[in-house]
UniProtKB/TrEMBL annotation:
Region (Disordered): 24-44
Record-level Gene Ontology MF annotations: transmembrane transporter activity
InterPro entries per UniProt: MFS, MFS_dom, MFS_trans_sf, Tet-R_TetA/multi-R_MdtG-like
Record's GO cellular component terms: plasma membrane
Domain Major facilitator superfamily (MFS) profile: 55-504
Chief subcellular location: membrane
Full protein name: MFS transporter
Compartments it resides in: Membrane
Membrane topology label: Multi-pass membrane protein
Membrane spanning residue stretches: 53-78, 90-108, 120-146, 152-170, 177-196, 208-228, 249-268, 274-295, 316-337, 377-399, 406-426
One Pfam short name: MFS_1
């Protein structure tokens, strides 16, 4: 999704361009060859003590890296435009990262199933370090975009395999708690990284936002190399069989289809009109390629990147729907909070960042309560229902915010909304681990992670178009002298220069109305989570599946 050529403030909205939800990695069995039993799980085979601690800390650091990299770029955009003397690629600085994360999820889910998890994960960390180095040393915009693509590719592998490493060292009944720890750290870093990035840019320059990834990645690499048990593939296969298992035709179709979709969403409404031949052609190409991908999966069956029996598993499909709408609703709300704070309330960019802290705290509390609760009672579905009930209520309350609403009330509501979004967010990961054999868990959880990334990208782009259209209409109604051209040229930060002081009150009301009207989409998305909650199985992580 491109934010260049947008009337939305660059730093404030880029800061929350990515999901504030913790991004949980799919699981995979590496060298765990035990067969599921109805009896209690044998926990003596797992690492304990310092070894387990180092593995968990290393996986957490890996997720912090991927989360930070997804959002820290927002604060370096002004510096990049000054460095490279161009704004043409601004939208791709973040979009290409998200595109690569989404596009290769299923491929890596299959890869972790057929090859040793340890080797793949360590290789992905090395590739991430290469991408960070390319970004830090880039002298032209194209090189920086390439570095972002490399980081996104590696991040996809790290996200798809992180929980695989937890499977090696954490018993099933304890995984929700550790998953919550990793997810909470990931969520905090995704929100806090723009604040950290701003301080780094001011102190030592934008390049250090990427140089700093190298020592963190090095610690992760060394700790996992020495502490993680050697992993083995599920079965012995030749390289030709490995290539066939990775389904190159399906992967190419899927990556190409998402590329067309992301290009269409990035260009529509900014560089091209929605009804332009370019946008229509890209959307048609997306549909055709997606159909070809689906046909390829159906024909290949078990050899497909995404076997139909896994995709249409009840828990996987329910988890996909719940995650898609939960993360999308959260993103639509949080994406436009900076607009409300900076434009309507007159806060600075730094202040609007601090005002996200209640949402972060609420999310952490929700995730922590869910993780602890599932560990204690075993059942995860009740927490999904809690999110389904609370999210529409809190999203609806946020649409009532006005220009004179108390700041305390706004912060309290955002805090509770963060809690509502976090309390059920990790449940689909537990559901997939219970519903699928461990050899298939990596693919099933890659579906959940894809829903998280794809939903945010899709619906935030849609919300951006809703916001722009409503803003133009509302401003023109309040101040007839304003039109789409003048608003698009000045941007929100320049509105004060376009209108007389006596009209500013009407302008602020128009902006406030536009934000509220955009948040109606979040209310609908939050309501749609009931589909996932209502269809999810009621199972306990304390029971081993047969």
């Amino acid at each position: 999704m491109s934010l260049n050529n947008s009337i939305v403030p660059s730093i404030a909205l880029e800061t929350l361009e990515h999901s504030t939800q913790p991004m949980e990695p799919p699981a995979i069995t590496a060298d765990v060859s035990r067969q599921p039993q109805a009896s209690a799980e044998d926990e003596t085979q797992y690492p304990t003590g310092l070894t387990r601690l180092l593995i968990v800390v290393s996986v957490t650091l890996a997720y912090i890296l991927t989360s930070m990299d997804s959002t820290i770029v927002s604060v370096v955009v002004p510096s990049l435009t000054n460095e490279f003397y161009t704004i043409r690629d601004v939208g791709w600085y973040s979009a290409v990262y998200r595109l690569c994360v989404c596009s290769f999820q299923f491929m890596f889910g299959k890869l972790y199933k057929t090859l040793p998890a340890k080797n793949i994960f360590l290789s992905s960390v090395l590739v991430f370090m290469v991408g960070s180095t390319v970004c830090a040393t880039a002298s032209v915009s194209a090189a920086f975009v390439l570095g972002r693509a490399i980081c996104g590719f590696a991040a996809s592998a790290m996200m798809a395999g992180g929980l695989a490493l937890l499977v090696l060292c954490i018993p099933m009944r304890k995984r929700p708690l550790y998953t919550g720890i990793v997810g909470g750290a990931s969520g905090i870093s995704s929100i806090a990284s723009p604040m950290l990035g701003g301080a780094i840019v001011d102190a030592v320059g934008w390049r250090w936002c990427f140089w700093m990834s190298l020592p963190i990645a090095s610690v992760t690499l060394l700790a996992l190399f020495f502490c993680l048990p050697a992993s083995k593939p599920r079965e012995e296969m030749t390289w030709r069989q490995h290539v066939s298992e990775l389904d190159p035709i399906g992967t190419v179709c899927f990556v190409a289809s998402l590329t067309c979709l992301f290009l269409a969403l990035s260009w529509a409404g900014s560089r091209y009109a929605w009804n332009s031949p370019v946008v229509i052609g890209l959307l048609v190409a997306f549909g055709v390629l997606l159909v070809l991908f689906g046909l390829d999966q159906w024909l290949k069956g078990e050899s497909a990147t995404l076997p139909p029996r896994i995709l249409f598993n009840r828990s996987v499909l329910s988890g996909f729907v719940f995650t898609l709408f939960t993360n999308s609703a959260t993103m639509v709300i949080l994406y436009y909070l900076p607009t409300y704070f900076q434009v309507v309330r007159g806060s600075t960019a730094a202040q609007s960042g601090y005002y996200q802290i209640p949402a972060i705290a609420g999310d952490i509390i929700g995730v922590g309560l869910q993780s602890t609760g599932v560990t204690l009672i075993g059942y995860y579905t009740p927490f999904m229902w809690a999110g389904t009930i609370l999210m529409p209520i809190l999203a609806g309350l946020l649409t009532t915010i006005k220009t004179r609403t108390s700041l305390v009330n706004v912060l309290v509501m955002t805090g509770f909304f963060g809690f509502a979004g976090g309390i059920g967010f990790l449940s689909p990961q537990s559901a997939v681990q219970m519903a699928l054999p461990e050899n298939d868990a990596s693919i099933g959880l890659s579906v959940i992670l894809f829903a998280e990334q794809f939903g945010a990208a899709l619906f935030v782009s849609a919300a951006q178009n809703v916001f722009q259209n409503r803003l133009v209409d509302n401003l023109h109604t309040s101040v007839p002298s304003l039109n789409a051209t003048s608003i698009g040229t000045a941007g929100l930060s320049g509105l004060r220069e376009l209108v007389a002081p006596e009209d500013m009150g009407d302008v602020l009301v128009a902006v406030d109305q536009s934000v509220a009207q955009t948040w109606y989409m979040a209310v609908v998305l939050a309501c749609m989570t009931i589909v996932g909650s209502a269809t999810m199985d009621w199972r306990s992580v304390k029971e081993k599946q047969n």
